[in-house]
Amino acid sequence: MSSLAPATDVLGAMITPALLISASGTLVLSTSNRLSRVVDRVRILARDAEELPDADEGEQSDARRVLIENQLQGLSQRALILRSALAALYVAIGFLVATSIGVGLMTSLHWGQNWPAIALAMLGACALLWGSVLLVREGRLAIGSTLEEMTYVQALIAARHPNSRRPPGA
C-alpha cells in the first residue's frame, strides 16, 4: 500500500490544475458569447446606420447618428479587450496543462526539482487573473454603453411625449 500513496499524490498534483483549467474553459465560453453579442450588436447598428436619414433631416437624426457612432466606438474597444481576454485565458489553459504534464514528467523521471511545475502553475494563475481583469474592464464598457443608450431612449420618449412620467432616479 505504501507504493500507492506516492502515485495518488502525483495524480492529485496533476489533477489539481484541472480545476483552474475548468474555470478558464468556462470563462473562454462566456467570453466567446460576449464577443458574439458584440458582433450581433455591430450588425444591428450597421442596419440602423443604413436607415438613417440624410444629415439635414433634423436634430433627432443627429442624436441617433451620434449614438450609433459612440456605440460603434465602444463596441470596437470591447472587441479588442475581449480578444485580449480570450488570448490570456487560452494562455492560462496552456500553462495549467503544462503544469499537469510537468508534475507527471518530474515524478516519472525522479527529478528532485519542483520549481518548474510551480512556475508553470503561477504563470497559468497570472494569465487567468489577467483575463479576469480584462473581462471586468469589458463589462464596465458594456454597462456604460447600455446606460448611454438608455439615456438616449429616455430623451427620445421625453421629446415625443413631454407629459410622460420619468422613472424614479432618472
3D architecture notes:
The chain contains three helices and no strands. The radius of gyration is 25 Å and the shape is rod-shaped. It has one domain. Helices cover 84% and strands 0% of the residues. With 170 residues, the protein is mainly α. It has helices at residues 4-50, 59-108, 115-160. The model has no long low-confidence stretch (mean pLDDT 87).
Instruction: Catalogue the unreliable spans.
Output: none
Helicity level: over 70%
Domains, number: 1
Rough outline: rod-shaped
Topology as a string of helices (H) and strands (E): HHH
The description of the largest β-sheet is: none
Radius of gyration from CA coordinates: 25 Å
Strand content bin: under 5%
Q: N- to C-terminal separation?
A: 70 Å
Mean pLDDT: 87
Q: Keywords, please?
A:
single chain, 170 residues, mainly alpha, 0% strand, rod-shaped
Layout of strands and helices, then pairs:
Elements: H1 4-50, H2 59-108, H3 115-160
Helix pairs in contact: 1-2, 1-3, 2-3
Short description:
This protein has 170 residues and is mainly α. The chain contains 3 helices and no strands.
